[in-house]
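My current task is to audit a protein record that another person submitted. I need someone to confirm that the token line plausibly describes how this chain folds. Take the sequence as given and treat only the tokens as open to question. This is what I was given:
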Amino acid sequence: MAYQPAYIQMFSVHGLIRGKNLELGCNADTGGQINYVLEIAKELSKREDVSRIDIFTRLISDKAYSADYAVPEEQINKKLRIVRIQCKGRKYIRKELLWPHLDEFVDNTIKYIKKENAIPDVMHGHYPDAGYVSMQLSKIFGVPFVYTGHSLGRVKKSKLIDDGMNEEEINKRYKIDRRIYAEEDILKNADLVITSTHEEVDRQYGMYRNRHMPTYKVIPPGIDVDKFYPFYHDRLPDNEKTEMVMYAHAKLLTELNRFFVHPEKPIILALSRPDKRKNISGLIKAYGESLELQSMANLAIFAGIRKDIETMEDNEKNVLTKMLLLMDKYDLYGKMAIPKKHDFELEVPALYRIVAEKRGAFINPALTEPFGLTLLEASATGVPIVATNDGGPQDILHNCKSGYLINPNDSKEMVSALKKIVSDGTLWEQFSKNGIMNVRKHYTWKRHAEVYAKQVNKLVKEITATNMQAAVPKDPIGKRLARLNYFLFTDIDHTLLGEDNSKLPAFVQFVKSNKNRIGFGVASGRTIESIKEVLESYHIPSPDIIVSSVGSEIYYGKRLHYGQGWASHISNKWQRDRIVDLLKAFDFLEYQEEETQRPFKISYFMPPEKDYLTQIHSTLLTNKCRYNLIYSHDQFLDILPYRASKGKALRYLSYKWEIPLRNFLVCGDSGNDEEMLRGEPLAVVVGNYSTDLEHLRDTRNVFFAKAFCAGGILEGVEHYRFDEVN
């Protein structure tokens, strides 16, 4: 097989990512992850073994945020785009509130892929929300699933409990149990998990039940060494950029000098989001209690970007308020700077170089740190570092040898490390040189992209080879559905199978002969288990799509991949237990056997008395229930969510897979088929139909066949010339 460069789709779902001028630190969703995703994508787009990269994120059109986030497609270079998918409206909402709506993101992404007619070779999710999305899409399209966690729910939950939050508060704020459940599922399904450090594999993923299931690869992220160049460089490639950098340098000096009485002193710099776990208060407390350190150096804390603390979310507001209170408590005026904003593109690199020129130090005192990108940025410019001994900094200090690891809860140890660096010129020079040299050896995006591309291409080749060697080659249902533009759907009982099965072999031959042009689906009141059993017993080919339990469930392909998007869609305002309790009052209803009941379907036997349905409707409506009631064959009563039915399921599939409804041929025989027979689809009512469909005889696009069962379906195929479609 000829070599083809890989097409990679990356997912960073919660938005606020753009091609330039990243707003890092403006809220909890704009941490280092978005920079990581953008930088690795840019570097991969330079490689010959990568044909194309799309970053999928949420479209946000909100007056509180830049209009850049409302652009559906942002072209960054010839091979790299940001694609923005609408999900849960367009207003910004924090990532924890997106969990109930991720299946909408999946469905809209499928629609986009179908429209583009370009299926990726790899899907890579960043953070568990995007991991969930990528996992679902990879199952549908049959492509490898790569995952990068960035931070882990079990670790976060443990830290929050240690900080005094109870589980109820944690779940209310962070939806942490929902996240951990998704992470466990991701570990079961991921073909490759990429981590930044060995500690992340051993200790953090070690907290998960499914930790041993995926393959892990440690690939440290990189930094842009052209942007974070050493402090002693005095020239850049072009004059325009030099002038901009010089201006940023001068602006930051002016900003810092507003705070400091003695601006000539070395600077101790901290740079992070205003998050409790970043332990900013611990740093201020350590500095405030050491008069000796105060006499040796100034303290500058850049804690995100803020306008008005009162308008910020509680977590950020509490951290920033505590900063101000501690500054006042220890009387650090003139010694401590807390600027309100900074530009990541130019000012942050300039800030590190100012600290280096003043022979200062950078500190990351976080209680836990999955990686520590700012440590690399500081080291690359020549600033010695002090970092928490928890998490990623262990690997960074092992490779870079550019500073000290400390216990973030030990103020004396923190102060001692900072004093050594700013007071010992020889030590400062050694740490500065080590950082500059070793970052360029171990932590560039070029190196990261090289290892990443090698791993991904290896994964693609292995899965391709496995599929080629299989006795029956896999036909991933997503790839197949993305190619199809026509579909035949049929009910089973009394439509496909029933009184006359003499034409069933001819129908099976029609499905097989037209497989490359026409999809095959069934829509039945039966459960999925019953459908599978009856189709196998009659040797009917596996459908591409099964709509089961009267439209309350959808399954894809031979593997019967559950349509989670449909389940999420129909679950809105569904009160199954309440409806069952309300209907216990009616002795004319007989609750069907348990195997017929489903999460989104309640089934009864009911005789055909004319006022029975009226009584049921009255009771459910009076109690403000939302439902869809289907009565068929004068005995079967099914109650579904108000969004569910076989007809609604087909319209959902038409939307999701971008197959026009007029290209659907649908076949039925009774009242529970009526909704799918109406409207745009080409409808066939087989000759042995129930009288409750008689009123459709004069309806447009409804053909009443004379032949029974499969013969009637074939009669409809001929009537509509459906066997001639391209």
Remarks:
- The mean pLDDT is 91.
- The first strand starts at residue 6 and ends at 11.
- The longest helix spans residues 445-469.
